[in-house]
Design goal:
Structural class: alpha/beta
Largest sheet: 7 strands, mixed
Distance between the termini: 17 Å
Strand content: 25-35%
Number of strands: 14
Order of helices and strands: EHEEHHEHEEEHEEEEEEE
Number of helices: 5
Helix content: 10-25%
Strand order of the largest sheet: 2-1-3-4-14-13-10
Shape: globular
Length: 205
């Protein structure tokens, strides 16, 4: 079984190493034809705007959209989550192209800038039920987004308390006031996490 990791920019190398620790054949994907024959695809963390520009530069979007409708698993972490979201807020001027597939709204840099990066424990009973192991996991948030809205067909796998140091972002002119926010969701063949499981030893994700 071969799993692809989009290797345009960001933490793709860490995902590749994690897959290899699991005995999975990992393919670094930079061209459209490298998607052929893959059993699944990971879109890693990084800089979402840069990633989208590079995907356009290498004419990858048509092939990625075809892959996303194939029913094969796709997982986006951090910037990859933004990539897979149907809607995104807090983007840079001019916005960015989204691949879509996850019926959710993601706020870019929800938790603040690089200096606001943090680690915390998350309750993940659904992950423990399906993959075994403890009902909690360590999560690394690096200039992370968050899932501020999601549709009825989307399953929330984990949420996180909004840290006191995180200034609540404005969503369509209104301040985000909830004390907790979704950081991992699943819908059909799509998985999205706002944090970086590849930077921990927990390979259940």
């Amino acid at each position: 079984m071969a799993i692809g990791v989009l290797a345009l920019q960001g933490s793709f190398h860490e995902h590749v190493l994690a897959l290899r620790r699991l005995g999975v054949h990992a393919i670094e994907v930079r061209k459209a034809d490298q998607l052929e024959g893959l059993a699944g695809l990971i879109i890693p963390g990084g800089e979402s705007t840069t990633m989208a520009k590079l995907a356009n530069q290498y004419n990858l979007f048509p092939a990625l959209k075809d892959f996303s409708t194939s029913g094969k698993p796709m997982w986006g972490t951090c910037a990859g989550l933004i990539f897979l979201a149907d809607r995104a807020t807090g983007l840079k001027d001019g916005g960015q192209e989204l691949l879509g597939g996850l019926d959710c709204t993601v706020h870019r840099n929800f938790f603040g800038s690089q200096v606001n990066s943090f680690e915390t424990e998350l309750a993940v009973p659904a992950l423990a039920a399906s993959e075994g192991g403890p009902p909690r996991c360590r999560a690394v948030f690096i200039r992370a987004p968050a899932i501020v809205e999601f549709g009825s067909s989307v399953e929330q796998i984990a949420d996180c308390e909004v840290p006191s140091f995180s200034a609540p972002p404005s969503l369509e002119g209104e301040m985000f006031t909830r004390r907790r926010v979704a950081v991992a969701v699943r819908q059909g063949n799509f998985l999205g996490t706002a944090f970086h499981p590849e930077l921990t030893s927990d390979t259940r994700w």
